[in-house]
């Protein structure tokens, strides 16, 4: 689910732990990122640019900032990225193997929406994601920490043939807007009032991020970069997971495009 962003920050489709592919060298110049990735923004905010929130809640804000910083550093490091798969639409997914033989995936796409519209759908209206993404059962915002940070609980949809069963995610999500880009970051978190639930395996997504910037080629479009960094937990072969996750990213993008085409209409 999202990835359950996929979880971002976005939601991902677990039934794909069933079907699957490639390898070319990743060229960082083909994947422009805005403004150098803002190394140091976490420290600036920690110096006092927090919204008015209680000190006990600031830990979630710091978790979100740190997750975004760490995810951006993964994206920023151009070494080791290889082409995983591409689509006729121009969507491409690259992968990189990190420590512990853990594979992360990076989606690059162009979407027919402004960065603000995508921010509204993926962050502000995250609880509505199940209406257009069939891989998600529900997303509930449990805490709002200022305007930029939330704690969410996400449950994957129950689907026929799902080999790994339902997962749930407890995540902190953080957003950052600059003059050039909108960043969404996320990571697993802990909430004493919501321990792992019976009947679910609690998966972890993050540190992860989405980078949204205006398209250089066409007004009204956005360049969309999504780093998926997920541990689905449980006894699933890693090879199967590594084939399923990039396919799920492409499916998420397909559902997001359908949502954008429908405008404000509710999708069945």
Automatic annotation (TrEMBL):
Q: In which pathway does it act?
A: Steroid metabolism; cholesterol metabolism
Q: Name one GO cellular component term.
A: mitochondrion
Looking up SUPFAM superfamilies in the UniProt record yields: Bet v1-like
Domain of life the protein comes from:
Eukaryota
Extract the Pfam families matched here: START
Q: A Gene Ontology molecular-function term?
A: cholesterol transfer activity
Domain START: from-to ranges: 77-258
Reaction(s) the record says it catalyses: cholesterol(in) = cholesterol(out)
Q: Name one GO biological process term.
A: steroid biosynthetic process
- Which controlled-vocabulary keywords does the entry list? Lipid transport, Lipid-binding, Mitochondrion, Steroidogenesis, Transport
Where in or outside the cell it occurs: the entry states:
Mitochondrion
What interactions and quaternary structure are annotated? May interact with TSPO.
Q: What is this protein called?
A: START domain-containing protein 1
Q: What is the lineage of its organism?
A: Eukaryota, Metazoa, Chordata, Craniata, Vertebrata
């Amino acid at each position: 689910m999202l990835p359950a962003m996929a979880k971002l920050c976005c939601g991902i489709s677990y039934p794909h732990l069933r079907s699957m592919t490639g390898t070319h060298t990743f060229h960082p110049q083909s994947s422009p990122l805005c403004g150098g990735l803002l190394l140091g923004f976490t420290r600036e905010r920690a110096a006092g640019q927090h919204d008015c929130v209680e000190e006990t809640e600031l830990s979630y804000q710091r978790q979100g900032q740190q997750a975004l910083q760490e995810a951006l550093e993964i994206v920023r490091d151009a070494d080791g990225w290889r082409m995983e798969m591409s689509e006729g639409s121009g969507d491409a997914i690259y992968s990189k193997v990190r420590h512990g033989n853990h594979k992360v995936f990076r989606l690059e796409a162009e979407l027919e929406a402004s960065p603000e519209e995508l921010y509204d759908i993926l962050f502000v209206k995250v609880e509505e994601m199940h209406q257009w993404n069939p891989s998600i059962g529900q997303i509930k915002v449990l805490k709002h920490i200022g305007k930029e940070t939330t704690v969410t609980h996400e449950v994957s949809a129950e689907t026929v043939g799902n080999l790994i069963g339902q997962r749930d995610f407890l995540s902190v999500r953080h957003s950052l807007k600059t003059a050039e880009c909108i960043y969404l970051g996320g990571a697993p978190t802990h909430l004493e009032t919501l321990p792992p639930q019976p009947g679910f395996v609690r998966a972890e997504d993050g540190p992860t991020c989405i980078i949204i910037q205006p398209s250089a080629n066409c007004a009204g479009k956005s360049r969309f970069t999504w780093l998926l960094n997920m541990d689905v937990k449980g006894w699933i072969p890693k090879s199967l997971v590594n084939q399923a996750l990039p396919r799920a990213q492409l499916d998420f993008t397909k559902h997001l495009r359908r949502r954008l085409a429908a405008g404000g209409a509710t999708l069945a």
